[in-house]
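Box 3.1 A note on notation
Throughout this textbook, protein chains are presented in two layers. The first layer is the amino acid sequence; the second is a token string describing backbone geometry. Keep the layers aligned when reading.
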Amino acid sequence: MQLNSILKKLLNSDEPCIRFKALTMLLGKDCKSAQMRNLREEIRNSQRVKLLLSQRNEKGKIPFHPYRKWFGAHWVLSSLAEIEHPPNDNELIPLKEQICEWLFSKQHLDSIRCIQDRFRRCASQEGNAIHAMLKLGLADSRVDEIIERLLSFQWPDGGWNCDKRPKAVNSSFVETLIPLRALSLHAKITGNKKSKAAAQRAAEVFLKRRLYKRRSDGHIIKDAFIELHYPCYYHYDILFGLKVMAESGFINDDRCNDALDLLESKQLLAGGFPVQKNYYRRSRQQISGRSLVDWGKTGKSFMNEFVTMDAMYVLKAAGRLNLEDLVGDGKSLLSSGTGDSGLNH
């Protein structure tokens, strides 16, 4: 892997969130240092964040259903958490309130069905809300209530599923990955043993299937699972799965190796990783699936910085990047001024 070339691109990205992630997740910079706090302020004031928040009204809320794809409050808050928006921003509280009003509404709670002793629930909704509020420092007692809800909905095999067909008895990758991510973060922040145990059970849903293979015959579960996307929103692919495994402490399980091999095979000859397909559309119309921002180049021959950053984080966590070379390249770039100039975009 051409570490020096890729690192140079990431450290000099126009996107402050890419520079922040490269410095903290790859080069080990302290995210609480003055330098990184300043970079996070650059994220807060970036054009990307301004566009994501551009539809707020005078009350600070986005005047659509919170789950409106992909520009409702639910998705905006999730996107801000993903790009390392600084925590404890009181201006985001109205968006949090919108999400909580929805998740605690009678209509939402009445939609939950228990069939054949299994709660049929789109648990990715609760999971994304928990993860975003924890990451952005917006959590309150309602997060604990949503956590308890998730725990009570967990299926016997460790995951979640919204499939209302009685014959559906296996958890869904789509509805399990984000709750796993949320519960593992909750356990890490609070030390909650129930969240930790639930996350471990959820991880098995993926690990026993090698993150993309059927248990019965080893075939690919779904073609979209082995393509790279950004953002994934609630969808699943191997990079998102590996990223959550890394965040949750399961990346060194041998059962991740097939997915890691597959990810490595997708690296471009010139370095970096592509977005092969995406789930959003740029549009001025308020249509479902509309994104307020562009998330970089799409195409099998183009490096996408967001996917490349996630892939390098995963490979580093899995011990598949030479750590000494990676740190050495980073120090060389920073000492020569390349990295520091990237902090002043």
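The beta strands are 113-115, 118-120, 281-282, 290-291. The chain has 16 helices and four strands.
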